[in-house]
Amino acid sequence: MMNMMSKRLLILEDGSVYEGHGFGSHHYQVGELVFNTGMSGYQEVLSDLSYCGQIVMMTYPMIGNYGVNRDDFESLDPAVFGFVVKEYCEQPSNFRCNLTLDEFLKLKGIPGICHVDTRAITKKLRSSGTMRAIMADEGADVQAVVKLLKETDFLHDQVARVSTQKPFPIPSRGKKVVLMDFGAKHGIIRELSRRNCDLVVVPYNTSAEAILALHPDGVMLSNGPGDPKDMTGAIEVIRELIKHVPIFGICLGHQLISLACGANTVKLKFGHRGCNHPVLNLTTGKVEITSQNHGYAVETESLADTDLIMTHQALNDRSVEGVSHTRYPVFSVQYHPEAAPGPEDANYLFDQFMELMEKENA
Question: Are 241 and 215 spatial neighbours (Cβ–Cβ below 8 Å)?
Fold first, then answer.
């Protein structure tokens, strides 16, 4: 079957060309090529809206072997621009499988390429940093494609593309939590719902007044794609919310809290994407294995002149993985405590949020 697949090219902005076989859609788009080191969880990775505008390459060699099922989605409309794998398994074997990976990618308009040297490409990205890339059919004018790549700017409206357009409730009888949706994973909603939170999910550009008018016990700031500095309106909203209500931020939410408090964020060379990243909890001294997906980080030195203190630190590169406010009930982490995919070492942070709301609203 595989030799029946048409040849497809992966072209990088530095002029590199990798020839492989195509699967999925033919809807090619320029995206930022990034790599994920997870050994499983490709369905959750594909449906994680934080990958909006990116072409995702898995470093684990065989992908597609358990297909795609109805239960493991982190969003209903994936926003990735492409999927790169070493070996694509055409015939998955799993009792939960509803679709093959190829069928799913075709359904969602996502192009895939296999039989490329993902190890070599990963080494290139680790040394040169992430770069623009696009897939193309065999015989494409490589020189023209490279010119297009160099002239194409990275997206700056990813959050607007993936956030909910209208507020919607997920009723329960527990604490009232407003979730600001910057591209929220379903895992965040699942964890809050498990704790009986009365949820209201609101768009990324909702005003502080509108949020406070809902009389929340707490506000959750979700993960999401892109450069946090593009979110100037949300930063102002968060700056106001901090004074009034307990807040828990995850990933992009963590970066936005930090910016709202006067810290700085920087783009990482190739980011943190995978589900085996060790993080030191500076409060307990314990190491947590975490799920991560981000290309930006809070600059450590910039915390010095703020009311934030670092609570968690990455052991791979010593970057900031968590902060806490010294005056207000506000904390955040750079990684994903809801995992999906990944370990659940950090799931306690949702309980910490519940305790914070209980304390502040006693």
Answer: no
